[in-house]
Amino acid sequence: MKIYGFRVPLMASLIVWIALWEVIGRTGAALVLPPFSSVVERMVEIVPTPTFLKALAMTGEAYLIGNLIAIGIGVPVGVLMGRSVVADRLLLPWVNIFLSAPLSALVPVIMVLFGLGMTTIVLTVVLFAVWIIVLDARAGVRGISPSLVEMARSYGATPLQAFAKIYLWAALPEILAGIRLGCIRAVKGVIIGQLLVSIVGFGHLFEIYFSNFLMEHFWALVLTLFAFAFAIAEGLGYLERRVEYYASSRQQ
Amino acid sequence: MTEVTPSLGSRKTGIRPARLQRNRLADLAIHPLTLRLATALILFSAWEYAGRLPVSPAFPGFVETMIAFADMAKDGSLLSALLITLQPLVAGLAISAVVGIGLGVAMGISRFTEWLIAPPFIVMQAAPMAALIPLLVFAYGIGLASKILTVCIMAMPVIVLNSYLAIRQTPASLIEMGRSFLGSRAQIILKIMLPSASPVIFAGLRLGAAAGFIGAILAELLITPTGIGDLITYNQSIAEYPKMYAAIFSVIALSVLFIEGLGKIEAAIFRREGRKA
Amino acid sequence: MTTARRERPAETGTPIIEVRAISKIYAGGVEALNDISLEVPRGKLTTLLGPSGCGKTTLLKIIAGLIPATSGEVLVSGRPVTGPGPDRAFVFQDFALMPWASVLRNVAFGLELRGVSRSERDEVARRHIAEVGLAGFEDRHPHELSGGMRQRVGLARALAVDADVLLMDEPFSSVDEQTRRKFQEDMLGLLSAHGKTVLFVTHSIEEAVYLSDRIVLLSRRPSRVAQVIEPEIRRGDDPEAIRRHPAYLDTVETIWQGLKRYLD
């Protein structure tokens, strides 16, 4: 996928859209759309406030812990599925179901079981991120060329050596792609979780801004979140491309 | 399953029929269908066990949930709720499909449209669009319109970007072939680029449907409780957990069937041509 | 035939394609072709032979009108080339078959683009499918065919539009060796029966010598015409005899000596 590979010249058209936003905002035609410039002013104002920083810290923590758990579970399970036919057949149907299932419907279950706090948000992140990580790690291991495995065997590699020195590295590009996609899904998960719980983190802020009709605040928050999400996606995409060089000869 | 003829086996490797028999049994034991049934059994038993333990008063077992499911299916409340949930979903997906494929194809065939439209959708694809739901409520109230638009903002980005990439990935030699046989630009777009892109466009629709389901449920949970969202929140508020779980179970099952159905259609269309999406 | 026949002077040997001082510099400064001039005689098979990456395909696509030259001009039947035309048909290295279309529709596609009615173009297509030996495969899809069969479809599609000139871009490079020999023989018979002019790109010396009336040897990039060779081989002989004929072997050797200096 090259979606995230676009560079500056293409992205320059965002300036056109921002200008359009500014103009519409100034005319006051759309009640919910304050001018871009005042949203940015508000952003500068609210980002350093303790309330915002606290929400950011809480969200960041839930996001990181959730992602680490998802990677910690997802990669080994994916590698196992790639290596073992039985494990693959046991788990693959479920992974596929949860990959495209409406996970937002499961958040209420997590809420009644784990309360309206940090745990629920972390679990929501795991739930959103883990399936694609499993699937890509599996695809990575399955895509390893048989001759590479035979090479390792013929030179007398033990199973552990084969895993640490061959499988993990040969499957690395796909594993990283899975982690990147998992991280993007996790951003959506963390926000959906907080919107539904709505008394913690940014969910709480959204609630306050929403009920007080603070449009500029609201947009400032949305813009900040979008910027974070885009930066995460782009940053991980960049890291992935740095690894891709040695996998470039492989067919996806 | 791999079939080994006895004669070949005994002559070449000395494997006796008895061994073969065992292999057949082993093959049957790890047959995808056997294992799928096994995992379903394991999963539902674990669910039932956890429900009986109980891990939480708010965690009914599998059997209890299925009984609630059957009750709600019988009295029709489940079906009517699902039909209500499907309204914004189907409307939103239809709008997203038409607008999304249109925009994506326009971006695929015109550099200017690509420059203008691709970046916002690339940002949207990575962004948590759910954050915009409160805004839709501000602008369009708490009715069907907001819910349809929720489905649209969730489903549209992936449909647009898939259509766009699909058109862009038309093999260069096919386009050259069209030009060398004197095809007009319209002919090349209609007869070469669109058919070539259709598997990936269709896959985008499938992904869009999955995202749309997330949006439709989110809308019902966040905006106003209707349909399945109403069953979930109402039964949660009166601590009628088996019904709450049954409602969730039903909407996940519906989405799985819906998306599986799209996948089947996809396979039926493209299998004959030897193309996979 | 479907389209009105263009005047076709029977006189073979007079130039039908004239390439005049063609140069091509790609955006980014890569110089692919440098001042190339050559003539392709009518009714003959001419081969562009050269080391890989030397710009043979670029030259072929310029003649096809698919890419513009930086300078110079190409004349086909005396008229300058400004784009693809009905007088030239292209056969692609990767076949360029539409995977979603049947063999019949693929072969008829050139006529379909010209607005020929369905029944008419299907009839023409069926005839050419039979000619390349694929009768009975009309309703199959490309993925059901072997590489050699796919290229036969590509050849039938090019024949179906009844162009004077066939431009073939390494048509056999994705076809396995055994199939290739049979295909080459079939193609030679077919082309001479139709009286087509062929410009053929290859990097295989043996293929060039076996097939060609005239071989244009290109140098390494930026390409120039290094040598023009006309193998003295009597067509119509038994193919195996040709491959053992001293003239054939000598020509292969001469070309190999000529090309060797471009290899490091």
How would you sum up this structure, described in words?
The complex is a heterotrimer of chains A (252), B (277) and C (264). Chain A is mostly helical. Chain A has one domain (39-247): Orthogonal Bundle (MetI-like fold). Chain A has helices at residues 8-11, 13-27, 36-46, 50-83, 85-100, 107-114, 118-142, 146-154, 159-170, 172-197, 201-211, 215-244. With 277 residues, chain B is mainly α. Chain B is built from 12 helices and no strands. In chain B, helix 5 packs antiparallel against helix 10 and helix 10 (185-222) runs parallel beside helix 11. In chain C, the strands form 2 sheets. Chain C has a 6-stranded mixed β-sheet with strand order 6-7-8-3-9-10, sandwiched between helices. Residues 1-9 of chain C have low confidence and may be disordered. The chains are: A mainly alpha (252), B mainly alpha (277), C alpha/beta (264). At the A-B interface, helix 1, helix 2, helix 5, helix 6 and helix 10 of A face helix 3, helix 6, helix 7, helix 10 and helix 11 of B.
List the helices and strands and how they pair.
The complex is a heterotrimer of chains A (252), B (277) and C (264).
Chain A (H helix, E strand, L loop, with lengths): L7 H4 L1 H15 L8 H11 L3 H34 L1 H16 L6 H8 L3 H25 L3 H9 L4 H12 L1 H26 L3 H11 L3 H30 L8
Chain B lengths: L5 H7 L4 H13 L2 H21 L9 H13 L2 H33 L1 H16 L6 H8 L3 H25 L3 H9 L4 H38 L4 H11 L3 H31 L6
Helix pairs in contact in B: 4-12, 5-6, 5-8, 5-10, 5-11, 6-8, 7-8, 8-10, 9-10, 10-11, 10-12, 11-12
Chain C lengths: L14 E11 L5 E11 L3 E5 L6 H9 L6 E6 L2 E2 L7 E4 L11 H11 L4 H14 L15 H14 L4 E5 L7 H18 L2 E6 L2 H7 L2 E5 L6 E5 L9 H6 L1 H15 L4
Parallel strand pairs in C: 3-8, 3-9, 6-7, 7-8
Antiparallel strand pairs in C: 1-2, 1-4, 4-5, 9-10
Helix pairs in contact in C: 2-3, 2-4, 3-4, 6-8
**Could you name the CATH class of the largest domain in chain B?**
Mainly Alpha
Shape of chain B: flat
CATH-defined architecture of the largest domain in chain B: Orthogonal Bundle
Q: Which oligomerization state do the chains in this entry correspond to?
A: heterotrimer
Beta-strand level of the residues of chain B, as a percent range?
A: under 5%
Integer-rounded radius of gyration of chain A: 22 Å
Annotation field: number of helices of chain B:
12
Q: Helix count of chain A, per DSSP?
A: 12
Give the uncertain stretches of chain B in residue-range form: 1-20
Determine the mean pLDDT of chain B: 86
Structural class of chain B: mainly alpha
> How many domains make up the 3D coordinates of chain B?
2
Structural class category of chain A: mainly alpha
Strand segment tally of chain A: 0
Number of strands of chain B: 0
- Summed up, the domain count of chain A is 1
Say what the CATH topology of chain A is.
Answer: MetI-like fold
Q: How would you describe the shape of chain A?
A: elongated
CATH class of chain A: Mainly Alpha
Q: Percent helix among the residues of chain B?
A: over 70%
